[in-house]
Write a structure and sequence with these properties.
heterodimer; A: mainly alpha; Helix Hairpins; 3 helices; B: mainly alpha; Four Helix Bundle (Hemerythrin (Met), subunit A); 7 helices
Chain lengths: ~100, ~170
């Protein structure tokens, strides 16, 4: 038996690592990876709460989060490719205009 | 007891992978440590009984999405990250702030949340049950996500396609 709060704590730690990476990373792709880490932390909390309340809808919502994350990864990486094509850099400090 | 040992082992792997993602300077190392985090998380899902979620975590997330990331990193030939100096105010206020916030969150979760302990495989989520829920109770959200994925595919193709001038040049050659 593992207390449910351990699972929530692990999800919180993963989410916090994602936030810290989002703030301190300077590479566009590394920032994107941090966002995926945040989504994973949230997924763990969803499944843990599903077990707490015996509601399978929590696991269905994880499925939806994964679909949205996959769509977001496809569009985001296409944007990164378009940005790299015009600027030749992935450093966010040098990508300060939305204009392509 | 075995449940607790398995949980702690894979939780340690998860946190180590997440910290490694932050520490590494090269994006490909960060991407591979994220794969480690996702694999360990799949085991945590299995411990909670979510079989279907664990399977699609490995297939969709660690498989498809991360392969896409690694391909883009190799395509753009992304190099080492440049060092930038952070502000001193961020260090002085941010680090204690994170520590206090983290300790407060841990205390609330461990002492005051009123959650109970869960056994291994507490709520089995076999594909059959999840599929029934998905195509019965959540049919409309499911169809909406299919439209979302279609729009995402078209957006990715439009954004990543070479610009018009490059295409014209290639045709003339």
């Amino acid at each position: 038996m593992v207390p449910l709060s351990y699972y929530l704590l692990l999800g919180g730690i993963l989410f916090a690592c994602g936030v810290i990476g989002f703030l301190i990373k300077r590479n566009l792709i590394a920032i994107f990876l941090s966002i995926e880490l945040m989504l994973n932390g949230v997924n763990l909390s969803f499944v843990a709460f599903a077990a707490q309340w015996h509601a399978l809808s929590g696991q269905v919502f994880v499925f939806f989060v994964m679909v949205v994350a996959a769509a977001e990864a496809a569009v985001g990486l296409a944007i990164i490719i378009a940005v790299y094509r015009t600027r030749e850099t992935l450093n966010v400090d040098q990508v300060n205009l939305l204009k392509l | 007891m075995l449940h607790l040992i398995l949980f702690l082992t894979f939780a340690a792997i998860c946190v180590a992978g997440a910290v490694n993602l932050l520490v590494q300077r090269h994006p490909i190392n960060s991407a591979l440590s994220l794969v480690v985090v996702m694999g360990a998380l799949a085991v945590e899902f299995l411990l909670l009984g979510a079989e279907f979620v664990a399977a699609i975590q490995v297939i969709v997330y660690a498989g498809a999405v991360m392969v896409l990331f690694v391909f883009v990193i190799m395509l753009l030939n992304a190099g080492e990250e440049e060092h930038t100096t952070g502000s001193r105010a961020a260090l002085l206020l941010g680090v204690p702030g994170i520590l206090i916030g983290g300790l407060l969150m841990a205390w609330v979760l461990l002492e005051r949340s009123g959650t109970r302990a869960v056994a291994a495989g507490a709520l089995p989520g076999p594909p059959k049950t999840i599929g029934w829920l998905l195509f019965h109770d959540y049919l409309l959200p499911f169809e909406v996500t299919s439209v979302l994925v279609l729009i995402a595919i078209m957006g990715a193709v439009v954004l990543a396609a070479p610009p018009d001038s490059a295409r014209h040049n290639r045709r003339e050659n």
